[in-house]
Backbone:
């Protein structure tokens, strides 16, 4: 994993940019801000820009960990009880600006109109009633490792995660494909279009905010998004788990959402063998507030979490996606579990409250 710990001088550079953004724009979803976000991102500290450039163009690692940025726990307020609460009021505008700037170094940040009201930064918080569900609002069950939105043809190339607070010291598991051995006969099967993925429950209409007001002029787009999800459910297409160069493949897999009840013993056997190898190579670390991580999601790394917070107000974070237009992603992520030793250098903690921003490869 590539790592950048911002120095006090670099943090001061970042704070100057954030102060300007806060004085100029209402929040990180503002259209005027997004039209200029690439220009602002290129004012971030040079060392951070250089490392992000290395991840994007050389793929020397499956993830990038950024730390050193301070989060004021008192100022950001209590962890939201539901992601919809932040649509009306958010205490993390400063943090979201920082997060989107980091994400933009890897590509164009985008959102799903079928998820969390179409916000660029999604809330990853435990929600009462979702404790045992395989979505980011779950809190007691293991969040199985996966590449983000594996079912979707326009899934992100990178997923970004930022920790707001983590009092339970929940760890996140990450496995990079460069470290996962794949037998030739297994790889051959996984490169074939024999597998079906179900849509992530977070995209289903049942998880839509009933009080959400759709922006004027976007009603048709939102309707199309839900119609696409329903079409994928009704008529799923078979696809491959591995793609790209066979000597350095990318992965597309959600270990919870892949159909296993199929009349294809060879495909099931290859899938089981591959997933067992990924399980052996998952490694964990434990996140601190303001730790942020960008990982490639459609190919070279997978992640998950083995143990998650048990209360509905204790932890919080956010997530975002990006589309670089240069390469597919290199990391898959899943549920966190407590590692043998828990360090501050951590990433991708779904259970402990992250902010996420997605990155998408052009269609």
Residues:
């Amino acid at each position: 994993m590539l790592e950048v710990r911002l120095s006090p001088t670099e943090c001061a550079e970042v704070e100057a940019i954030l102060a300007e953004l806060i004085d100029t724009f209402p929040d990180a979803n503002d259209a005027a801000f997004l039209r200029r976000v690439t220009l602002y991102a290129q004012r971030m500290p040079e060392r951070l820009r250089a490392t992000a450039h290395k991840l994007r163009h050389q793929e020397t690692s499956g993830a990038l960990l950024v730390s050193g940025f301070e989060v004021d726990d008192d100022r950001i307020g209590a962890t939201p009880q539901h992601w919809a609460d932040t649509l009306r009021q958010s205490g993390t505008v400063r943090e979201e600006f920082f997060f989107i700037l980091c994400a933009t170094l890897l590509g164009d940040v985008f959102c799903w109109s079928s998820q969390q009201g179409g916000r660029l930064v999604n809330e990853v918080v435990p929600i009462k009633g979702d404790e045992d569900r395989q979505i980011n609002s779950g809190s007691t069950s293991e969040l199985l490792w996966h590449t983000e939105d594996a079912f979707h043809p326009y899934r992100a190339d990178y997923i970004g995660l930022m920790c707001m607070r983590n009092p339970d010291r929940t760890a996140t598991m990450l496995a990079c494909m460069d470290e996962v051995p794949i037998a030739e006969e297994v790889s051959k099967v996984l490169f074939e279009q024999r597998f079906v993925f179900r849509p992530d429950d977070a995209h289903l209409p049942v998880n839509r905010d009933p009080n959400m007001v759709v922006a004027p002029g976007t009603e048709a787009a939102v309707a199309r998004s839900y119609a696409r999800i329903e079409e994928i459910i009704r008529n799923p297409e078979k696809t491959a788990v591995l793609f790209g160069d066979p000597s350095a493949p990318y992965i597309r897999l959600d270990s919870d959402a892949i159909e296993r009840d199929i009349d294809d013993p060879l495909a099931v056997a290859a899938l089981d063998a591959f997933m067992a190898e990924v399980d052996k190579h998952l490694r964990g670390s434990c996140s601190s507030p303001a730790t942020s991580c960008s990982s490639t999601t459609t190919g070279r790394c997978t992640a998950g979490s083995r143990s998650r917070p048990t209360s509905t107000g204790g932890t919080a974070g956010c997530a975002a996606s990006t589309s670089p237009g240069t390469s597919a992603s290199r990391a898959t992520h899943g549920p966190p579990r407590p590692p043998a030793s828990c360090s501050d250098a951590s990433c991708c903690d779904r259970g402990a409250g992250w902010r996420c921003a997605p990155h998408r490869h052009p269609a």
User: Anything to note?
Assistant: The domain at 2-360 is CATH 3.60.130.10 (Double-stranded beta-helix). Residues 306-316, 324-363 have pLDDT under 50 and may be disordered.
